[in-house]
Amino acid sequence: MIEKLAYMYEDVELGLLPSEYLRLDLYIFTNDKEICRTNNHDLFTYYRKNYFKKFASFEIFLDEVLNREFLLDENSKSFYSFKLNQKIQKEYVSLGFDNFLKKYSEDNVGKEKLKLNTSIIQKNDLSTIKYLLYKNKYDVGFDDHLATYYIQKREDSFR
User: Fold this and answer.
1) How far is the CA of 129 from the CAs of 11, 26, 43, 87, 133, in angstroms?
2) Are strands 148-153 and 138-143 parallel, antiparallel or unpaired?
3) pTM for this one?
4) CA-to-CA distance for 143 and 45, rounded, in angstroms?
5) How far apart are CA 92 and CA 31, in angstroms?
6) pLDDT confidence of residue 5
7) Measured in whole angstroms, how far is the alpha carbon of residue 111 from the centre of its chain?
8) Residue 70, by phi and psi: left (phi above 0), alpha (psi -120 to 50) or beta?
9) Are residues 25 and 139 in contact, defined by beta-carbon separation less than 8 angstroms?
10) Helix (H) or strand (E) holding 98
11) How far apart are CA 112 and CA 132, in angstroms?
12) Distance of alpha carbon 138 from alpha carbon 132, whole angstroms
């Protein structure tokens, strides 16, 4: 997965081209205990600007930040950041992941992906729910046309 996320292509005339995995949210941590939601394209730009001397390659940097072995400093406000909602986190622990997934998803007729049940989610809870799904190897994508969030297993995102 990291190898695929780390592959970035720059065209001489066009510059950095969007990755095929640009749509996937990635979550990294700062040393002030915030979680930042980003993507591989923005992380690559951030790496080139701030960390290319510290890490031998973007792939190494990506591996370190995604596996929480390297925390970004709190001045890295280039990304959307949030703290986990404690109420949702307690519910996640109490329900266990399978029941948590059942509660916050609904079937999507004829599709392999589940739909995120946004009718029961408060606006301030969405980031925490998406992060907890990500932590359990599920990705949440958004379909602009249908205004719907979809949930799929991470392994399906890389097929």
Assistant:
1) 37, 14, 22, 11, 6
2) antiparallel
3) 0.87
4) 25
5) 24
6) 87
7) 22
8) beta
9) yes
10) helix 97-104
11) 20
12) 9
Residue type, 142: F
Q: Tens of pLDDT along the chain (159 residues)?
A: 888 888 888 878 888 888 888 889 999 988 877 898 999 999 999 899 888 999 999 999 999 999 888 887 765 667 788 999 999 999 999 999 999 999 999 987 556 779 999 999 998 899 999 999 999 999 998 887 878 899 989 888 887
d(CA 126, CA 106): 15
Structure tokens at 26: 């990635």
Question: How many residues are listed for the chain in this entry?
Answer: 159
- Structure-token pair, residue 88: 């949702």
Q: Are 132 and 150 in contact (CB under 8 A)?
A: no
Structure tokens at 79: 């990304």
Q: Which amino acid, one-letter code, is at 80?
A: Y
Give the pLDDT confidence score for residue 111 in this predicted structure.
66
Are residues 117 and 104 in contact, defined by beta-carbon separation less than 8 angstroms? yes
Contact by Cβ (8 Å): 114, 152: yes
With contact defined as beta carbons under 8 Å apart, do 125 and 136 qualify?
no
